[in-house]
């Protein structure tokens, strides 16, 4: 019984993923094909790259709701640079730098002033969206050279889309950072118990800001993949991505309270989101209903997460009381 | 006579004052290398304040201290750590979602500066545990450990670094007997290495078993530093409590007769088999050391925590209390310790505070009836003699004593019959204390019963008709005023662990 529970706890997301895939496989003809599989993976590439950076911010106890506007801004800015004659590579690097600067500013503002990350980045989301509208006049930036489309639309060996390769590489880098490096472990430490981290002689503020910096790099990369896939800079390209990313991370087991979660979980979370939206698409469900479904998934998963935490806490209290009781019995026996 | 002993830490004439309170009065103590030095005193005697000064959490107003040969007037926590000062707090400073190994090496990971060498760290952690005789898997996450195991990890973390002075604040309270033995073994080993251990504990038996010398503090003053072998239990208790009463308490005139509340075999929240009764018009004091379960007991009766088993009778009728709302409906009210956070709403007026829990009584058809509201509020202001220019004055502008009256008033307006005071006079100046004592006395004359949790011996003895003493979640004794059983030594004897 206990074993079963443990097994279930450990593989909840995987089981969920298999159920969702099976459901669509049976009910939606055309879902279980290699072609659809590849296009599903290509669809989630941007989500996957974003979630990798976002999970680090969340593990370190932060949040960045402005990634959607960053995505729009960076893809438009990069497109504008390329259209205006800046060499593609320089323009891409420039785009990534912009994303890093914005993210770093977010982290810095949140950490130094102590304002809630949610408010700060929500405001930033508006600021950046405003900037995009002002610079583009709210119209898309077209005219990218064909060479620029390879990143988002090209294939390797004729069947594997390049965005998938990039996403897998980013997942591996993310896992490496989180599991193997000092910084990654510090993210967990800060998100879990900031005071204890500080008392261990580490600069908790610096660590938190660095989580935003790394997030910026990944947002920049994702923006370029997105721009390349839609072959233009769209002022609303990133809209709604922040919710998808949060859902993917939370489904994947990254705790809202920080300090908890693994890269492998994030991968699973991203897949669940991808299968859900692709499967609904293949079944012919319209995008409004898809939005509704995703929202429900987020609420359900977060409430399960919170309930679980609550139960774990109360169990811990019971244990410490049991300990005390045992102590008494022993003392009683000694007397 | 102890010339050969080297001094590892000494404090000289440390003074620390808070508004209205002198927390430390001219404290000077020498701590020797390789000694276990007990630090004892009642709650609020100044032990923790002293530790905070030495470790750099707070700054002293006057005085200095030396770690080794270096003299400091103030120190940062980081510097203190560098000088080899380690503290094991009651609240643990570990990172729950990381492994035991990572916690031990937090801040000084083994690796090349970028990537961590987990295998090497794990090897070292294992070796450390073997040396210490601890049996904990270094791969386990800290959140999956028991509190006792966490404590051991914390100690291992301290010991794995260069340590000169190790301060332990009540280290054994979460430990089981076997683990206590293990801890003592560790302490002896550290002592041999020349480490100074400052051991703060309420358990007298531990003090006698482990320490070489004991310093007793009381009311922010150092009372004595003695060799442990020159002390016995009685002398030590006398040193801790021996003082004269300073406050004057109103005479208790009424003799409580009928029963208001009875608790039978109550368990839950760490408490075991609590039975007692409270009579109408009685003040029942609850004594005990920090962690003995006083607040926990009060929270159970008030429905703030879950009762596991046992019964509560209100005026001979069995009642069920699952939530504070139910307790309030039954006429049981809690006047919490933290007045400004939990008792009143500072930014609201006297009137609004008094009316807050009573809107059902002063409303007609869901709308607040202004004249009923005024009547209700004015009645309490008069009855309790709340000194305020008007009822629309904001509560934050009132004195501490009057704020406390507002807290009481809001429950009396709802016809509360049993008031639970948790530390009724904490943070209140002497004059206002007097007011509150008089108020409590008058309330009992009106037939209201009071349970008073207090850490102040004098207050307990001055105000209560009976005093229940709790120790580690059980009632360890009951003293009655009418039988002349009240004495500080008596209470302390029941409250201290043998």
TrEMBL record, chain A:
It is a multi-pass membrane protein. CDD domains: TM_PBP1_transp_AraH_like (cd06579). Coiled coil: none annotated. It comes from the Bacteria. One of its GO terms (molecular function) is transmembrane transporter activity. The keyword Transport applies. GO terms for cellular component: plasma membrane. It is found in: Cell membrane. Keywords: Cell inner membrane, Cell membrane, Membrane, Transmembrane, Transmembrane helix, Transport. The keyword tRNA-binding does not apply. The chain crosses the membrane at residues 12-32, 44-67, 79-102, 114-135, 155-178, 207-230, 288-307. This is Ribose transport system permease protein. The lineage of its organism: Bacteria, Bacillati, Bacillota, Clostridia, Lachnospirales.
UniProtKB/TrEMBL annotation, chain B:
GO terms for molecular function: ATP binding; ATP hydrolysis activity. Signal peptide: none annotated. Pfam families: ABC_tran. InterPro entries: AAA+_ATPase, ABC_carbohydrate_import_ATPase, ABC_transporter-like_ATP-bd, ABC_transporter-like_CS, P-loop_NTPase. Residues 9-244, 255-497 form the ABC transporter domain. It is found in: Cell inner membrane; Cell membrane. It comes from the Bacteria. Keywords: ATP-binding, Cell membrane, Membrane, Nucleotide-binding, Repeat, Sugar transport, Translocase, Transport. GO terms for cellular component: plasma membrane. One of its GO terms (biological process) is monosaccharide transmembrane transport. The keyword Transport applies. It is a peripheral membrane protein. This is Monosaccharide ABC transporter ATP-binding protein (CUT2 family). It comes from Faecalicatena orotica.
């Amino acid at each position: 019984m206990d074993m079963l529970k443990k097994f279930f706890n450990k593989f909840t997301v995987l089981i969920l993923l298999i159920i969702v895939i099976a459901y669509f496989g049976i009910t939606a003809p055309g879902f279980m094909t290699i072609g659809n599989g590849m296009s599903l993976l290509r669809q989630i590439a941007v989500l996957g790259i974003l979630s990798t950076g976002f999970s680090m911010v969340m593990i370190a106890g932060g949040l960045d709701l402005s990634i959607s506007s960053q995505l729009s801004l960076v893809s438009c800015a990069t497109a504008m640079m390329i259209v205006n004659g800046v060499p593609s590579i320089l323009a891409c690097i420039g785009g990534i730098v912009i994303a890093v600067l914005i993210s770093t500013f977010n982290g810095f503002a949140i950490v130094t002033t102590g304002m809630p990350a949610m408010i700060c980045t929500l405001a930033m989301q508006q600021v950046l969206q405003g900037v995009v509208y002002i610079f583009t006049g709210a119209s898309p930036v077209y005219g990218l050279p064909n060479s620029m489309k390879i990143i988002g639309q090209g294939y390797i060996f004729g069947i594997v889309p390049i965005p998938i390769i990039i996403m897998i590489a980013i997942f591996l880098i993310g896992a490496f950072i989180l599991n193997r490096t000092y910084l990654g472990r510090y993210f967990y430490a800060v998100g879990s118990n900031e005071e204890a981290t500080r008392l261990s002689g580490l600069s908790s503020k610096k660590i938190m800001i660095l989580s935003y910096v790394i997030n910026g790099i990944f947002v920049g990369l994702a923006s370029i993949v997105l721009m390349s896939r839609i072959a233009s800079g769209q002022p609303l390209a990133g809209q709604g991505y922040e919710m998808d990313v949060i859902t993917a991370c939370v489904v994947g087991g990254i705790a809202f309270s920080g300090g908890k979660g693994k890269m492998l979980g994030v991968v699973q979370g991203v897949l669940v989101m991808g299968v859900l939206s692709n499967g609904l698409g293949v079944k012919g469900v319209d995008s409004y209903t898809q939005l509704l479904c995703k929202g429900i998934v987020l609420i359900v998963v977060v409430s399960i997460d919170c309930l679980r935490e609550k139960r774990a806490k109360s169990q811990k209290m019971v244990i410490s009381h049991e300990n005390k009781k045992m102590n008494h019995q022993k003392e009683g026996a000694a007397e | 006579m102890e010339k050969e002993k080297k001094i590892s830490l000494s404090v000289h004439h440390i003074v620390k004052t808070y508004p209205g309170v002198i927390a430390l009065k001219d404290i000077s103590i020498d701590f020797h290398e390789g000694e276990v030095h007990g630090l004892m005193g009642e709650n609020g005697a100044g032990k923790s304040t002293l530790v905070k000064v030495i470790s750099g959490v707070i700054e002293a107003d006057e005085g200095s201290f030396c770690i080794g040969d270096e003299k400091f007037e103030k120190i940062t926590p980081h510097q203190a750590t560098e000088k080899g000062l380690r503290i094991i707090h009651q609240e643990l400073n570990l990172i729950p979602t990381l492994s035991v190994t990572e916690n031990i090496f937090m801040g000084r990971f083994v690796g090349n500066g970028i990537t961590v060498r987990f295998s090497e760290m794990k090897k070292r952690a294992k070796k450390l545990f073997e040396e210490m005789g601890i049996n904990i898997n270094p791969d386990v996450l800290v959140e999956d450990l028991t509190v006792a195991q966490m404590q051991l990890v914390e100690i291992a973390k301290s010991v794995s670094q260069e340590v000169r002075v190790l301060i332990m604040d009540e280290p054994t309270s979460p430990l089981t007997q076997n683990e206590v033995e293990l801890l003592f073994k560790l302490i002896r080993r550290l002592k041999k290495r020349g480490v100074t251990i400052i051991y703060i504990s309420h358990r007298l038996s531990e003090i006698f078993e482990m320490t070489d010398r004991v310093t007793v503090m009381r009311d922010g003053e150092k009372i004595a530093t003695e060799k442990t072998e020159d002390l016995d239990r009685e002398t030590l208790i006398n040193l801790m409590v021996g003082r004269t009463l300073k406050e004057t308490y109103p005479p208790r005139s009424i003799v409580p007769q009928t029963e208001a509340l009875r608790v039978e075999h109550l368990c839950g929240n760490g408490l075991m088999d609590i039975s007692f009764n409270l009579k109408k018009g009685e003040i029942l004091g609850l004594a005990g050391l920090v962690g003995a379960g006083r607040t926990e007991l009060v929270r159970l009766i008030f429905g703030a925590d879950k009762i596991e088993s046992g019964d509560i009778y209100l005026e001979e009728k069995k009642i069920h209390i699952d939530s504070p709302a139910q307790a309030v409906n039954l006429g049981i009210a809690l006047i919490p310790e933290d007045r400004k956070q939990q008792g009143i709403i500072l930014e609201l007026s006297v009137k609004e505070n008094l009316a807050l829990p009573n809107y059902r009584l002063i409303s007609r058809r869901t709308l607040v009836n202004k004249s009923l509201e005024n009547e209700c509020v004015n009645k309490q202001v008069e009855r309790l003699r709340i000194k305020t220019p008007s009822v629309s004055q904001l509560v934050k502008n009132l004195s501490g004593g009057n704020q406390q009256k507002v807290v009481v008033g809001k429950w009396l307006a709802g016809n509360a019959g049993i008031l639970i005071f948790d530390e009724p006079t904490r943070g209140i100046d002497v004059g206002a204390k007097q007011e509150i004592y008089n108020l409590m006395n008058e309330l009992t004359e009106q037939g209201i019963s009071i349970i008073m949790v207090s850490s102040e011996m004098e207050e307990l003895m001055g105000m209560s008709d009976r005093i229940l003493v709790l120790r580690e979640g059980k009632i360890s004794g009951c003293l009655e005023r009418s039988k002349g059983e009240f004495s500080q030594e008596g209470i302390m004897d029941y409250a201290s662990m043998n």
